[in-house]
Design goal:
Keywords: Signal. This protein is mostly helical and about 130 residues long. Helices cover about 55% and strands about 0% of the residues.
Length: about 130
């Protein structure tokens, strides 16, 4: 009985040390291994999302293909949609792509979610009528 209790304490202790040192361990792993791990293994990085178009452009959420400054000079909205911006930011982090590629990936995901083939723009549903 004492041996079983001792092994439980040892395993619990090792688990606790690994849990508290997980960030130091993950920092030493190659990026290819870290990218395959679920994002739930990492602490949620709390970062305040930019609120205005100006802040979003300064933080890299504007490119020549998606020019915030040129397109929203007289727009009454405060900034880009926070939920969509968070999704794009997560795609950028997870897939290590730039802002334009992350926007394209998100747009294709949205098209698939709505039943549209992202490559052709046609409905995925075989029963849909696309021409008469």
């Amino acid at each position: 009985m004492f041996d079983l209790l001792m092994w439980c304490v040892i395993i619990f202790g090792i688990g606790a040390v690994l849990y508290y040192k997980r960030f130091a361990i993950l920092a030493r792993l190659p990026p290819t291994v870290v990218m395959k791990l679920p994002s739930s293994w990492f602490a949620p990085e709390y970062t305040l999302l930019p609120n205005t178009f100006q802040e979003q452009a300064e933080q890299g959420y504007s490119t020549s293909a998606f020019d915030l400054a040129g397109n929203v000079s007289d727009d009454a909205r405060v900034g880009l949609d926070e939920e969509q911006l968070q999704e794009i930011r997560e795609i950028m982090r997870r897939k290590r792509v730039n802002f334009d590629e992350a926007r394209l990936i998100r747009q294709k995901m949205e098209m698939r979610r709505h039943g549209i083939d992202p490559d052709t723009g046609l409905p995925i549903d075989s029963k849909a009528i696309t021409r008469l």
